[in-house]
């Protein structure tokens, strides 16, 4: 809780300083009064946060509370000086307007309007610059994320390429093995055909030797005896 209040105090101080800085730059007028009230309200908001810090602070946070009080005191002094300088400027402006002629008064008002327009342009430029910085930060984050994704994809592609190389090597080995097996199958088939052919020749030779061919010619039958 203390850290939350401390962050809130920091934001309140930043806002109050911005309002006081704007108040110091403005010439007397209705806009000056509006900015002065906003600056006073911002300083009081910072004071309320300091009161909350005192309630939530433990022994270890006391030095930080004292620092916040010192910052608040400086902020109030700055606001007081800005109001005083604006009041002096207002009196001087009124005196100048009383003594000046009509063309000089119109020129002063034109300068005031140009100053207000310049201040407004500066504020718009600051806002655009802040937005551009935010866009640049977001773009950088997106670019870093894209680079990370691309790196992961590159690693995945390299792993896939290595797997394909291994698969190609495996396919080459399988092809060689199939070719070797095919050659052996043809050799075995040729051997079996040769054995079968040899066996058929042997069978034919046995049949021929046993039934057809005889080494001794048959003797003629003897004539019957004469009576």
TrEMBL record:
Keywords assigned: Coiled coil, Membrane, Protein transport, Transmembrane, Transmembrane helix, Transport
Domain of life: Eukaryota
Vesicle transport v-SNARE N-terminal domain ranges (all copies): 1-83
Record Gene3D superfamilies: 1.20.5.110, t-snare proteins (1.20.58.400)
Name recorded for this polypeptide: Vesicle transport v-SNARE N-terminal domain-containing protein
UniProt membrane topology term: Single-pass type IV membrane protein
Record keyword Coiled coil present: yes
Molecular-function GO terms, alphabetical: SNAP receptor activity; SNARE binding
Location (main, coarse): membrane
Transmembrane segments: 190-213
GO cellular component, one term: late endosome membrane
Family: Belongs to the VTI1 family.
One Pfam family in the UniProt entry: V-SNARE
Coiled-coil stretches: 36-92, 147-177
A GO BP entry: vesicle fusion
Subcellular location: Membrane
Organism: Strombidinopsis acuminata
